[in-house]
Amino acid sequence: MARQTYREENGKWGVKGVSWEEVPDGLYGALYKLRRYEDICEDTQTVEALTCEDDFTSWRLVDPEHNVWQCGHCLTLHQFEADGPEENGFVCCPYCAQFIERTGGEDANEPA
Ligand SMILES: [Zn+2]
């Protein structure tokens, strides 16, 4: 995706097609964050590190009776009181820090 922000050699920056006069003061912080985000995304090594497929693991239910799940990467077992990693807000495996792949149908129980 093309950048929405630009930065000039003299350090000035802005949003393409928008002059600062049009931007409400309250939006400055959000645009600054966007620029920072885009700066980071231009650093391809960082992006690769963040999106590397090796960083994903999947958890599977290995003991339905006791609701015990296992990380597919570090093989650690984890017991939940109820539901699975997704419902308990686990984005990463707490043992090996790999991102947990979300399974299908994750929006079914989301509050509107
Ligand atoms: Zn793990």
What would you say about this model in short?
By secondary structure, the chain is α+β, with helices and mostly antiparallel strands. Helix content is 21%, strand content 20%.
Average pLDDT value? 84
User: How many discrete structural domains?
Assistant: 2
Order of helices and strands: EEHHEEEEE
- Name the beta content range: 15-25%
The assigned structural class equals alpha+beta
Q: How are the strands of the biggest sheet laid out side by side? A: 4-5-6
The bound ligands are: zinc ion
Taking Cα atoms only, what radius of gyration do you get, to the nearest Å? 21 Å
Shape: elongated
End-to-end CA span: 29 Å
Instruction: Work out the helix count.
Output: 2
What portion of residues is helical? 10-25%
User: Uncertain spans, ≥5 residues at pLDDT below 50?
Assistant: 105-110
Oligomer: single chain
User: How many beta-strand runs?
Assistant: 7
Largest sheet properties: 3 strands, antiparallel
